[in-house]
Write a structure and sequence with these properties.
Layout: E1 9-10, E2 19-29, E3 35-45, E4 55-58, E5 63-69, E6 72-73, E7 80-81, E8 85-88, E9 94-103, E10 113-117, E11 120-124, E12 144-153, E13 159-162, E14 165-171, E15 176-187, E16 194-197, E17 200-207, E18 213-220, H1 229-246, E19 254-260, E20 267-268, E21 273-277, H2 290-305, E22 314-315, H3 321-339, H4 342-362, E23 373-374, H5 383-400, H6 402-416, E24 420-421, H7 423-434, H8 443-446, E25 452-460, E26 465-473, E27 488-495, E28 517-521, E29 525-530, E30 538-541, E31 550-552, H9 557-566, H10 570-591, H11 598-609, H12 615-621, H13 627-632, H14 639-656, H15 658-668, H16 679-696, H17 701-713, H18 717-729, H19 735-746, H20 750-761, H21 768-777, H22 786-799, H23 801-804, H24 810-825, H25 827-833, H26 845-860, H27 865-875
Parallel strand pairs: 2-12, 18-19, 19-21, 22-24, 25-31
Antiparallel strand pairs: 1-23, 2-3, 3-9, 4-8, 5-6, 5-9, 7-8, 10-11, 11-16, 12-15, 13-16, 14-15, 17-18, 20-21, 25-26, 26-29, 27-28, 27-30
Helix pairs in contact: 1-2, 2-3, 3-4, 3-5, 4-5, 4-10, 5-6, 6-7, 9-10, 10-14, 12-16, 15-16, 16-18, 17-18, 19-20, 20-22, 24-25, 24-26, 25-27, 26-27
The structure holds O-methyl-L-tyrosine and zinc ion.
Domain Peptidase M1 alanyl aminopeptidase C-terminal: 559-876
Function: Aminopeptidase N is involved in the degradation of intracellular peptides generated by protein breakdown during normal growth as well as in response to nutrient starvation.
Enzyme class: hydrolase
Length: 876
């Protein structure tokens, strides 16, 4: 059992800082074992604070060497050193504070603060890593100007980078060199960064809309220089897009990105010096899949967009995290939708929301988009804060319309540039720019849970009216038994029997006003009556997924089938198919039978025979609902039943439409396009590989040959991996040797080897637990590398439900064993990987008991506060 219970921090306890820090001068004597950090802070009393005048600085794992106030050494009686704070009572109104500390980067396996990755020194300060570098008021509302001097051995660390502009560099005695960087923009400490290492770079330039030339630099290890083009191209596209779409220009003369192998998250938006998990920045067709290429575009865009939404305008406190993350994810989504297929990106986003965020909202870790308390802020980089937060911003945009939303954004930028603000400030800018009242909308930030929309409709042929009744309610979540109604935009269209949109006229309106309506629900019950509806229509509702809610709408399968073929909204068309197939599969689980439903074949056949122009979208229309999505719809999750009916459906569809799959495969197989990453070529590959995956389920010599042939001849990773997946997951006779071949081919490419690990960890065939044990014992498995850990433990727990949820609890036990090891190394990643266990209430009593036992075991151990928070909340 850990000692003492960690304390929760509450939003309601927020106090403005007692002291501001205007300027910071940092000097680093860099060394992997021991780095010396000298800090000089210009401190000033905040007149707006009435709190006692102690100066409280955060600090963790620091060895204090010296401390001076206004140039004079401070006697020990004038300060108090605690485990995680340095307190100076009775300091003047304005003074300079100098400290000197020692830190140990090579021993820092948490990857927060200054740490070592493949011989490179780098930092990660969000959320509270800066306190592991020096004593500082480490909170986002203290914004300062930084000047940073880096000194290091020139052979080991020839490249020395920090935020902002390079002021000076040169040699020191004894083979060391130095660089001085200055960031002209005041920033919170979480945006501080430095990098020192033996790195190579690729460069480019971007001319901004006002004609300034910005130098773009991507720093990587030398063997990765061939994987930089796509990220640089993505960066230029993002910069141009933010100018076009939001009128936002980049503000420094240099934009640097560094690829890091050991990274807890995807990437980090440090001012002028982004640090990226190598997975999210390195890509070339031979080693990265089309999905990877899309991810790089998205993450490069995301970090770039933070320069305005996060950096120029930052957060008052960490409770406001979604103010920067939800907004930036929304901007990233818009960017990717504009750059590639809008429909595909929307479907992917909603899929992620429904398979990952909805379960979060239903479970013990449910929290509002703006949480009101936390123990460890790192646990709040969640699907709710990011993905639901983006949906909340999207709803604002839907309610206001793009033009007015943009006006609100302009005012937000103008009013708050250089400030640390709150979600209320954001809504206020939207309100003031448009003369609207958004007070009810704030509930999306303060109330947790996924609202339900109960929809009933009735067509009256005689009166020629279409009646639409909608009720909203939201289930209780921890600490929030009752909810007030949300303001929900519901986009609707009525389709006539030919699939054409009908002009819409509500009772009381003089004439029809267009065919698509955004209905704004503000009450628990609403009734809408559309008049002059000549023929019985089919309702297309919640178009483009206009709100993050669960739709409860009972209607005959035929109507879903109609929408699957005819809906004019690409998202809803796809979703109708998902609903239809889900209903068929869930009914089969109930009946414990699996007979292929004719609706499925009828839906799939025309798509295969005449694919739509957007091939990637067609591939999505041909996809069965994910196991997680089916699980989400069951009261008690039947993992075995879900897997069984889904696999059976896949095989039966493969058999019933075999010739169609095959001809569609051949029509889209263009090996010569291997290096083409245009949307069209990606679309063709996606459709072809979807065909391959169905065919592979047939488990016969012809499809075995097809998969092996593709594996052997593939020149790009998308095709090679798709073939390998077909071979691994469908009991191919050449499975073992092909896996061995893949490993041999790629043993020197860690990001590809991650895929090799992940593929096997997700393999649903029998003996999975043993295989996972072997992977964990493999010489290339490394508990210190989060990418590798996620590839094995993360994938096993999330993407191999049948075996992770083995009835005897062996999967849970294995995870718990490894979490205990991992937690001692990297608590942040351990806490994240523990989350699949927290859904124990959703399973049958036997599984629930075993999951509970695994959590109990973790709670009894000496665990970090990160893991403690997850485990105790799950057990409450
Ligand atoms: N702000 C980053 C995400 C991030 C958060 C925490 C990190 O380390 C603890 C690292 C990155 C983003 O949204 O991209
Ligand atoms: Zn972000």
């Amino acid at each position: 059992m850990r000692e003492g219970t960690p304390k929760a921090i509450r939003l309601e306890d927020y106090r403005p800082p007692v002291y501001w820090v205007d300027r910071v001068a940092l000097a680093f004597d860099l060394d992997a074992d021991t780095t010396r950090v000298q800090a000089r802070l210009e401190v000033r009393r905040n007149p707006a604070s009435s709190d006692p005048n102690d100066l409280i600085l955060n600090g963790e794992d620091l060895e204090l060497q010296r401390i001076r106030l206004d140039g004079r050494p401070l006697e020990p009686a004038r300060y108090r050193l605690e485990a995680d704070r340095l307190i100076l009572p009775g300091v003047p109104e304005r003074f300079t504070l100098e400290t000197e500390v020692l830190i140990h980067p090579a021993a820092n396996a948490r990857l927060e603060g200054l740490y070592l990755s493949e011989g490179m020194l780098c930092t990660q300060c969000e959320a509270e890593g800066f306190r592991r570098i020096t004593y500082f008021p480490d909170r986002p509302d203290v914004m300062a100007r930084y000047r940073v001097t880096l000194k290091a051995d020139k052979t080991r660390y020839p490249v020395l980078l920090a935020n902002g502009n390079l002021l000076d560099e040169g040699m020191l005695d004894d083979g060391r060199h130095f660089a001085v960087w200055e960031d002209p923009f005041p920033k919170p400490s979480y945006l501080f960064a430095l990098v020192a290492g033996r790195l190579e770079k690729r460069t480019d330039t971007f001319t901004t809309m006002s004609g300034r030339e910005v130098l773009l630099e991507l720093y990587v290890e030398s063997h990765d220089l061939d994987k930089c083009d796509h990220a640089l191209d993505s960066l230029k596209r993002a910069m141009a897009w933010d100018e076009r779409k939001y009128g936002r220009e980049y503000d420094l003369d240099r934009y640097m990105i560094v690829a890091v192998s050991h990274f807890n998250m995807g990437a980090m938006e440090n001012k002028g010096l982004n640090l990226f998990n190598s997975q999210c920045v390195l890509a070339r067709p031979e080693t990265a899949t089309d999905d990877d290429f899309e991810r790089v575009l998205a993450v490069v865009g995301h970090e770039y967009f933070h320069n305005w939404t996060g950096n120029r305008i930052t957060l008052r406190d960490w409770f406001q995290l979604s103010l920067k993350e939800g907004l930036t994810v929304f901007r990233e989504q818009q960017f990717c939708a504009d750059e590639a297929s809008k429909a595909v990106r929307r479907i992917e986003d909603v899929n992620l929301l429904r398979t990952r965020q909805f379960p979060e909202d239903e479970g013990p870790l449910a929290h509002p988009v703006r949480p009101d308390s936390y123990i460890e802020i790192n646990n709040f980089y969640t699907m709710t804060v990011y993905e639901k937060g983006a949906e909340v911003v999207r709803m604002l945009c839907t309610l206001l319309g793009w033009e007015r939303f943009r006006k609100g954004m302009d005012l937000y930028f103008e009013r708050h540039d250089g400030q640390a603000v709150t979600c209320e400030d954001f809504l206020k800018a939207m309100e003031d720019a448009n003369g609207v009242d958004l007070s009810q909308f704030l509930r999306w930030y303060t109330q947790a849970g996924t609202p339900r929309l109960e929809v009933a409709c009735h067509y009256d042929a005689k009166a020629r009216t279409f009646q639409l009744n909608i009720n909203q309610w939201c289930p209780p979540t921890p600490g929030q038994p009752e909810k007030e109604p949300f303001l929900i935009p519901v986009t609707v269209v009525l389709l006539d029997p030919e699939g054409r949109e009908i002009p819409l006229q509500l009772a009381g309106e003089a004439a029809p006003q267009g065919s698509e309506r955004v209905l704004a629900l503000s009450e628990a019950h609403h009734a809408f009556r559309f008049v002059n509806v000549e023929r019985p229509p089919v309702l297309s509702i919640l178009r483009d997924f206009s709100a993050p809610v669960k739709l409860m709408l009972d209607r005959p399968l035929d109507q879903w089938h109609f929408l699957w073929r005819h809906d004019t909204d690409p998202f809803n068309r796809w979703d109708a198919g998902q609903t239809l197939i889900s209903q068929v599969l869930l009914a089969q689980i109930d009946r414990n039978a699996a007979v292929l439903d004719p609706h499925l074949v009828e839906g799939f056949a025309p798509l295969l025979q005449q694919p739509l122009a957007d091939r990637a979208y067609t591939a999505l229309l041909l996809q069965l609902p994910e196991e997680d999505y089916l699980a989400e719809q069951m009261d008690v999750i039947d993992v075995d039943g879900i897997h069984r009916v889904r696999e059976t459906a896949r095989r039966e569809l493969a058999a019933a439409l075999r010739d169609d799959w095959l001809s569609c495969y051949h029509a889209h197989h263009r090996p010569e396009e291997w290096a083409d990453t245009s949307a069209a070529a990606i679309g063709r590959r996606r459709l072809k590989n979807t065909c391959l995956s169905y065919l592979a389920s047939l488990d016969d010599p012809a499809s075995h040959d097809l998969a092996l042939q593709q594996y052997r001849t593939a020149r790009c990773m998308s095709d090679q991996l798709a073939a390998l997946r077909a071979i691994v997951c469908d009991a191919h006779p050449a499975k073992t040797e092909t896996l061995a071949d893949f490993y041999d081919r790629w043993r020197h490419e860690p990001l590809v080897i991650d895929k090799w690990f992940a593929l096997q960890a997700a393999d649903p065939s029998s003996g999975a637990l043993e295989r996972v044990r072997k992977l964990l014992a493999h010489p290339d498995f490394d508990l210190k590398n989060p990418n590798r850990v996620r590839a094995v433990l993360g994938v096993f727990a999330r993407q191999n439900p049948v075996h992770f949820h083995a009835r005897d609890g062996s999967g849970y036990q294995l995870l718990a064993d490894w979490l205990l090891n991992l937690d001692r190394i990297n608590p942040q990643v351990a806490a994240r990987l523990a989350q699949p266990l927290t859904a124990w209430r959703r399973y049958d009593p036997q599984r629930a008991r075993r999951m509970h036992q695994a959590l109990e075991r973790l709670r009894q151990a000496d665990i970090s506060k990160d893991l403690f928070e997850i485990v105790t909340k799950a057990l409450e």
